[in-house]
Amino acid sequence: MAGFAGASLAQAKPHTILVVGDSLSAEYGLKRGTGWVALMEQRLAKESPQTKVVNASISGDTTSGGRSRLPALLAQHKPTVVVIELGGNDALRGLPLAMTQDNLQAMTQAAQAAGAKVLLAGMQVPPNYGQDYTKRFSDTFATVAKANKAALVPFLLKGVADVSNAAKLFQADRIHPNESAHPTILNTMWPAVRALLR
Question: Which CATH architecture has domain 16-158+185-196?
């Protein structure tokens, strides 16, 4: 079994990974090719050259925007894995948590109905939002993942936003990670992505 578990991704079946995200995945403020999705594509080119990556992320997008865009993306690209990285802008705009959860749930179920495995990239908001809201927002991603047996990375920016030298890892707006942070983001996402490609 150990040998089977360690089998190379290069032997796995062809996959198409669709990433539906916001500015954190759309290389906002970055040189093209330096965001975590592009870095994932580069890593997959070595480990799983038959895997295709489609980055359908749009800066400023919300879960409502992703929900409305997803059906056409599923029909066009026929992904085997869908990464949903949305929700941060919902919080920034003060949108109701119930709506965010409903949208994430609908996107997860639509992707699964289309035959794809789903990975939710969780987000956390700063403590100035209040302890209750902060916890409920974070829990939203886990709730949707558990209800739909989807994969979950609890916090996309783990090792970036929650470290003592975080300021050095962000652009001047203090919202978007800079180029040096994106390899860390990829390393946070990679184990879950890799597991879904098995």
Answer: 3-Layer(aba) Sandwich (3.40)
What band does 128 get if pLDDT is binned at 50, 70 and 90? Answer: confident
Q: How is residue 35 written in tokens?
A: 């965001």
What pLDDT is attached to residue 126? Answer: 84
- Alpha helical stretches, state H, the chain: 2-5, 36-47, 63-77, 88-92, 97-113, 131-148, 182-196
pTM for this prediction? 0.93
Instruction: For residue 23, indicate whether it is catalytic.
Output: yes
Choose the catalytic residue: 59, 64, 139, 176.
Answer: 176
| Collapsed DSSP state (helix, strand, coil) of residue 13 | coil
The answer to whether the beta carbons of residues 3 and 41 sit under 8 Å apart is: no
166 CB-contact burial (10 Å; exposed 0-12 / middle 13-18 / buried 19+): middle
Catalytic residue among 23, 25, 48, 57: 23
Is 59 one of the catalytic residues? no
DSSP-derived secondary structure for 49-93:
TT-EEEE---TT--HHHHHHHHHHHHHHH--SEEEEE--HHHHHT
Contact 57, 85 (CB under 8 A): yes
